[in-house]
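Supplementary Text 2. Reproducibility record for the structural model of the 296-residue chain.

All settings were left at their defaults, and a single model was retained for analysis rather than an ensemble. We include the record here because the model underlies the residue-level annotations in Supplementary Table 4.
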Amino acid sequence: MTARGVFITFEGGDGSGKSTQIQSVREWFASRGREVIVTREPGGTELGTEIRRLVQNGPEDVDARTEALLYAADRAYHVATVIGPALERGAVVLGDRYIDSSLAYQGAARSLGVDEIASLSAWATQGLYPSLTFLLDLPPEVGARRRTDAPDRMERESMDFHERVRHQYLRLADAEPDRIVVIDAVGTVDEVFSEIRGVLVERFEGGVATIDEAVDAPSSAAAPEESAASAESSVPEAATERPVPEAAHERPAPSAPEAATEASAPRTGSGEQRSSRKPATMVGALGESQGALWDE
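Retained model, structure tokens:
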């Protein structure tokens, strides 16, 4: 059976260590004989590099809607020219930021509406979603202390802005615990990767299956009719469709999130084994767990 591609994304605030961990994950998959593509948003293409320059170091008067549309344009081109083709040939794609970043930064922190940004992103990507997302979580003030370069336009935003980003990320993780695994990024590089490696082994090796067997194995929850429908779809098999997330910025307080709607379509085609593993640092409801999980 032809191997299917695997799409994994890395999310988190500035200074959370995404780039470092992506390289470790790249080496983990490469050592198992997989083709690995490492990319980022924006900047994974020549066009994306120019968009990155504009949104990070361009005019200060770039408004929120323009910013959101620039990110969506980059994402559409990125999927069409890099991510989609790589998945179709069976590669592992590791993405530094994807749709969840737009939901957190533009949808919640910029107050454009999580629902609206989710719809825009789904249209731009033709419904392509990652099968696994690592959310590297740490307090914004810790990330700011780790910064070594001059801050860009986004990094110069207020601490309140970055707190809204963090809260929205955690709400997304509460809503999709099977896809989004929260990793406490306050630890050392080795400690953080140890958590990530544990998830990779469980999802893709399961203690018994090789990486190729895990990728080729059909989801146990998928019915034969669903597999046939997936084969006929024009969207790469690593993609799944899901309901638009609720607009978290409309909620009165992060300590009382509304119950997330379960995805109406089963997750198939990503190739990873289903796991009962809970997010690495999430316990109970967000409002109850947040104070206990991170020693700020």
